[in-house]
Specification:
The protein is of the alpha/beta class. It has a single domain (11-366), classed as TIM Barrel, CATH 3.20.20.210. Helices cover 43% and strands 14% of the residues. The chain has 13 helices and twelve strands. The protein has helices spanning 11-22, 54-59, 61-74, 94-97, 131-147, 161-169, 171-180, 182-207, 240-257, 274-278, 303-311, 325-339, 353-366, and strands spanning 31-37, 75-79, 102-104, 109-111, 214-216, 221-223, 227-231, 260-266, 285-289, 315-319, 344-347, 351-352. Strands 1, 2, 7, 8, 9, 10, 11 and 12 form an eight-stranded mixed sheet that branches. Strands 3-4 form a two-stranded antiparallel sheet. Strands 5-6 form a two-stranded antiparallel sheet. Helix 11 links the parallel strand 9 and strand 10 (315-319). Helix 6 packs across helix 8 and helix 8 packs parallel to helix 9.
């Protein structure tokens, strides 16, 4: 990418600070995602014809690129925020590369179950001719050409380990097989570990910038090398022992082969695996999603999670929420005082330009 992308004030500084954050070595205050609504939108708004299909809505490179450029004319990206283009065949596109069919809906993408008998399953192999893999790689190439030097195109949400098996087999069937056929599941998870990089590496070669950095579709992250969000949402349904048996080794291998990794800890039922996650030395950072109906992640009641992450030497990704701007600032101030700034990434809701300027001034005065 160019030194300064069209919609980012100082892209080189942003990339440098992300590199520091991954290592817990930020020098100039916390990493901050601040996006504001422009008081006066930039000129040149482009027509946005309706999407021709739900597939185009999710992975149409031309249509989504127009909408991103228009968004950048209405919003201003400040501090360490940056625009990027996301093209996802839903949350777990690897399952489509391996035989599932995507079921597009306006909200998300689901996947058809395609494994009905382990003994007969022959599809767990890299297939360069798989139609969804070819389609995804094609639209990413097109999007990269369209983007030019204006913004990065994200690594899509491939997803990994037993989350992929859950999509292909069905979660209930997988729960039974974890007990009835544990060796079979281990073998297939190991195969998925290898296949992940068959896909990741090829996508990375398409979207990486000139220095080898890239951005990832989820959680607004970028890194100086091969960067990804990693997860196991299925872990909410299994015990700590099962997590250590079926998931932890897979995550450790994955994190060891990537340069920067953020674990997405999804919901209170997944918190019981926090100790196992903190045992993975190569894991860089953790993000916690409290789940619907719970307070925001910046709340005091989740300090016990962030305390353990900090104590393990990992970096913190914390979404700042609350009823209004004043609550956001108070929460951020509390987090800075508790955790310092060297390994802290704070993500704020969209705000006004005036609010953003006030926040930036406070950060400059008090959080450096």
């Amino acid at each position: 990418m160019a030194k300064n992308m069209q919609y980012t004030a100082d892209w080189e500084s942003t990339k440098k600070r992300f590199g520091e954050w991954w290592k817990g070595q930020l020098r100039q205050g916390p990493l901050m995602w601040i996006v504001a609504t422009r008081d006066i939108p930039l000129p040149g708004n482009e027509p946005e014809p309706p999407f021709q299909s739900l597939e185009e809505y999710f992975i149409g490179p031309e249509a989504r690129s127009v909408r991103l450029r228009n968004q950048c004319r209405k919003m201003i990206y400040l501090a360490d925020a940056f625009p990027s283009l996301t093209l996802n065949i839903g949350p777990g596109s690897m399952s489509t590369y391996l035989g599932s069919e995507p079921v597009f809906s306006p909200q998300t993408v689901w996947y058809t179950e395609c494994i009905h008998d382990w003994a007969d399953w022959k599809g767990m192999a890299y297939d360069p001719e798989n139609k969804w893999w070819k389609r995804h790689l094609e639209v990413l190439r097109q999007a990269r050409d369209i983007a030019g030097e204006d913004y990065p195109v994200d690594i899509p949400d491939i997803i990994e380990n037993v989350d992929i098996l859950s999509a292909m087999l069905g979660p209930q069937n997988l729960l039974f097989d974890l007990m009835d056929h544990p060796d079979v599941i281990k073998a297939f998870v190991e195969r998925i570990d290898d296949l992940y990089f068959e896909y990741y590496d090829r996508i990375y070669e398409v979207v990486k910038d000139r220095s080898g950095g890239c951005s990832y579709t989820a959680f607004r992250i970028c890194g100086p090398g091969r960067t990804a969000k990693v997860q196991c949402d299925f872990s909410a349904m299994i015990s700590p022992d099962q997590f250590r048996t079926f998931v932890q080794p897979s995550l450790q291998k994955q994190c060891a082969r990537l340069d920067a990794t953020l674990y997405h800890l999804d919901g209170p039922d997944a918190v019981r695996h926090l100790d196992a996650l903190m045992e993975i030395p190569e894991l860089s950072a953790l993000q916690y999603t409290p789940g619907a109906g719970n307070p925001p992640a910046c709340s005091k009641e989740f300090d016990f999670i962030h305390d353990r992450v900090k104590a393990a030497g990992k970096s913190l990704w914390i979404s700042v929420g609350g009823k209004d701007y004043e609550a956001w600032v108070q929460s951020a101030d509390r987090l800075v005082q508790r955790y310092g700034t060297e390994s802290l990434y704070l993500l704020f809701p969209v705000m006004s330009e005036t609010q953003a300027e006030t926040l930036l001034n406070k950060a400059e005065r008090e959080w450096r």
